[in-house]
Amino acid sequence: MQKVVIAVSDEEKVLIHKDYEQLVNFLEGPKSKISIDDTDREQIRMAYELAVDAHSKQRRKSGEPYVMHPIAVAQICAEEIGLGATAIVCALLHDVVEDTDVTLKEVIDQFGPRAGKIVDGLTKLDGLYNKIDEQDTYIASPQAENFKKVLSTLVEDVRVVLIKMADRLHNMRTLGSMPRHKQLKIAAETSYIYSPLAHRLGLYKIKTEFEDLCMKITHTEAYQDIEAKLKATDQERITYVKNFIAPLQDSLKETGIDYRITGRSKSIYSIWNKIKTKKVAFEEIYDLFAIRIIVDVPKKKEKQVCWQVYSIVTDVHTPIPERLKDWVTTPKSNGYESLHTTVIGPGGRYVEVQIRSERMDEIAECGYAAHWKYKGVSNQQNVYSIWLDSVREILDNEDSDAIEFLNDFKTNLFKEEVYVYTPKGDLKILPKGATALDFAFSIHTDIGYHCTAIKVNNKLVPMGYKLQNGDQLHITTNKNQKPTENWLKMVVTGRARSKIRSAMREEKRRQGITGKEAIERKFQHLKIDFEENVEILAKYYRLKSRIDLYFEIAKERISLSDLKNIFTVEGGKLVRIPEEEPAVEPQTIQEVKPRKKKNIKGRPQLLIAGEPGDSYNYSLATCCNPVLGDGIFAYLTATAGLKIHRTSCPNATHMMANYGYRIMKAEWASTTNTSFIANLLITGVDDGPGVIERLSNNISTKLGLNIRSFYIDGNEGYFEGRVSLLVANKDQLNLAIINLKKLDGISNVVRLED
Ligand code: MN
User: What is the mean pLDDT of residues 32-60?
Assistant: First the structure.
C-alpha cells in the first residue's frame, strides 16, 4: 500500500472512531459469538489507540487513512470469523511492526507474549510479500516460498492464518484502487492459495466471496453477465421458494421447533463453474439456489430433529436417494455439519435442501474458529488439530523445495481425507486417493522402504491399493527390500514420494561408484584435474548431476573411450573438438530468432509494460489464443521469449501465483490488423447433415469469417462441434457467437478457454 503524508483530518478522525465504536458495539452486542471482559475491552482500546497513532502518517492507495484497514480487518475477524479478543487486538496491530516505528518488543510489553507471537507471524508474512515486488534475483517461486512461511506460522497458532484471511479479504474487497496487473496477480494468489485454504479451514463464506471477487477481476464479463441474469430472475426465484415452503409450514409448526428457512441463490462463481463443466446455458441450470432449514435446538437434540425435518420435507417433496448426504452423523474433516438432500420440487425442478442447527450453521458460515479453544490442552479429535498435525508433517519434510511443497500441499491437504487404522486400532488420516504404500511410509520411513506385502482387513492387496475409509492395514517388511522407480507410480503423498526419490538417489550413488573410479583413472591418465573436468563431461552429456554421469558410465551407457573423438586436452582442460560446421552457441540462435520474427506479417502490435513491444520477442499463447480486445498479460518463458495470454487463460492462475515476477503488463496497440484464432464450442440438437452446412454457410458467407477447422461429433440427437475461426477482434467474435446462437437447432455457443 502506498503511503502519502497528508495528515488525517478532523472529519476523518470522526470516521475512524465511528468504525472503532462499531467494532466494540458488535462485540458487546447480541450477535457476537464471543464474550469480552473488562481486561479484553481495555486491551482492544489500547491496540486501537496504538494503531491510530502508529499509522497516523499513512494512507491507503484509495486515499483513506491507513488505520481504517486494520480496523476493518478486526471487524471481519469479529463478525465473520468469530475470533476472540486476542485475535482482535492482533488484527488491529497486524501492520504496525512491519510498516511503522512500533517494535515487536513494545507489542509484547503491552499485550503479552501470545499477541506478540501472532503479530510477529503476520509481520513475517507481510514482509515477504513486500519484498517479492522488489525482487530481481532469481528464486524459483517466491510465492511458493511465501506460502511455506504462511503454513509454518499456521501450525504455531492457527489465528495467524485466520487473521491473514481477514486481511486478504479486506484487501480483495478494496482492490479497485490498484492497477490492473496488480489486481490480477493478487487475484491469482487468492484463488490459488487463500481460497482453497479457506475451504480447508471451513470458512465457506469467505471462500465463496474470494471466488466471486477473483472471478470479477479475471472474468469480468462472465461475472457481470451472470450477475445481471440472477437479478432479472430474482422475483421468479422468490415466488418459487415460497411455493416450495408453503406445504411444509404446517407440519414444521406442529413439531413446536423453532426454525427459519432461507432460499438463497448460489454464488456467481459456482453457477459459472456449472455452466462451464456441464456446458449448458444459464437458463438451463435449474438448481440456482438451495433451501436451508435451520432449527434452533440444544446440541443433544440436533441429530434427531434434523432427521425429523428431513422426514417432513420428503413427505411433501419426493427425494432423490443418491443425493442424500449425512454430515450430521459424520462431520466433514473441516468441521462442516449438515444434512443435505435433493428433492423434486414444484414444476419437477430439482431443489437442494440443507437441514442443520443454528450451531452447525454458524460453523458452516464462519468456520470452526469460534468453537476452537486456544488456551490449554485442545481436544484430540478437534478438526483443526488433526489437520494441523498433517500440515506439520509436510513441513517437516525437508527434502522438498518450495514449489514441490506447494504442490504437495495442494494435492494432500486441500483434498478430502480417508480414515484408516493400524493393526492396534490407531487412527491414521491420509489424503483421499492415498495408497497402501503411502500408509506404510506414513507409519515410518523404514517400514515404507522395506515393505514387501500389505494386508487390508486381512486380505493381501497390491501396494498401489487405494485406501478406503475404515480399512485396517497390516504391513510385512523385509530388510532386503528396497524402493524402485516403479514405486513412484504407486504413491500420491509428498512424504512417500520424496522418501522414495531420496532412496533411489542413494542407490544410484552406490551403483555409480565404479563409474566414478573409471573417470578418475581416465583423468589421471590424461593428467587433468578431476573436479573441473568432470563438470565439463556432465554438461556435455546433458546430465543433471555427477551422480547421473557416474551411473551412466557404470551402466556402460556412456563409454569413456569415445572421449578422444570429442575432446582434446588443452592446458589441463577438456576442450571440444570443433565439428565441421562452426558450432553455433544456443544463445545466438535465440537472439537471431526474434529479429526474424519481427518482420513476419501478422504479428499483432502490442504495448509491453507500457512501451511499444517491438523490441521484445513475443508471440500469442496457443493455450488460450487471445484475440484483439481480450484482457491480456505477458509471461516471460525460459526459452520462448514472452507469451501473451488471456487474463482468463486456464493457466493464468498457476503462472501468476507461482511466477508472479515473470508477469509483465501487456496491452493491444490500437492499430493492429492481424487475424486471430478463436475456438468455439457449439452444441445443439442434431437434425442431420444439414447442421454442418448451415453453420459453415453462416460463418463464411453471412459473417464473412474464415474457418480453420471444423469438427463435429453427434450422439443420440445431440451434437458438439468445435470450430476454429479467424477473426479480426473480439467484437467480431462476439457478433459471430450471438449470430450462431440464433440458428435453429443450436442450444449454446461458447468460446473455448483452451
Ligand atoms: Mn494488512
Answer: 89
625-646: pLDDT as tens digits: 898 888 898 888 877 788 899 9
Question: Is the same domain home to 230 and 294?
Answer: yes
Domain of 478 in residue numbering reads as 383-484
pLDDT at 376: 38
The Cα angle at residue 202 between residues 199 and 205, in degrees rounded to 5: 75
Cα(680) to centroid of ligand 1, in Å? 42
Among 671, 623, 658, CA closest to 643: 623
Quick: pLDDT tens for 192-201. 778 888 887 7
Q: Are residues 301 and 168 in the same domain?
A: no
Cβ neighbours, 10 Å, residue 749: 22
Strand extents, DSSP E, 482-576:
567-570, 573-576
Distance 66 CA to ligand 1 centre (A): 9
Q: Are both 520 and 390 inside the same structural domain? A: no
CB 192 within 8 A of CB 660: no
For residue 183, how far is its CA from the centre of ligand 1 (angstroms)?
16
Could you tell me if 356 and 311 are in contact, meaning their C-beta atoms sit under 8 angstroms apart? no
In this prediction, residue 407 has a pLDDT band, given cuts at 50, 70 and 90, of low
Q: Which of 98, 326, 358, 404 is catalytic?
A: 98
Q: In 29-103, where does DSSP find H-type helix?
A: 38-54, 68-76, 85-92, 96-99
Q: In the predicted model, is pLDDT for residue 440 greater than 90?
A: yes
Calculate how far, in angstroms, residue 70's C-alpha sits from the geometric centre of ligand 1: 6
Note if 99 is an active site residue. Answer: yes
The answer on 544 and 404 residing in a single domain is no
Same domain, yes or no: 9 and 149: yes
d(CA 652, CA 183): 13
**Total structural domains in the chain?**
5
Cα of 629 vs centre of ligand 1, distance in Å, is: 34
Continuous H helices in 563-720: 563-566, 586-598, 652-659, 690-697
CATH number of the domain residue 342 falls in? 3.30.460.10
| CA-wise closest residue to 550 among 573, 521, 570, 574 | 521
Q: Of residues 79, 95, 99, 120, which has the active-site annotation?
A: 99
- In this structure, the number of other CB atoms found within 10 A of the CB of residue 279 comes to 14
Measure 190 CA to ligand 1 centroid, in angstroms: 14
pLDDT tens-digit profile of 535-580? 888 888 888 788 889 988 888 888 888 888 888 888 888 888 776 5
Give the pLDDT score at 582.
41
User: What is the whole-number distance in angstroms between the Cα of residue 378 and the centre of ligand 1?
Assistant: 29
Shared domain for 229 and 357, answered yes or no, is yes
The pTM score is: 0.65
Last residue of a domain, one of 326, 352, 373: 373
pLDDT greater than 70 at residue 293: yes
Cα(95)–Cα(71) distance, rounded to whole angstroms? 11
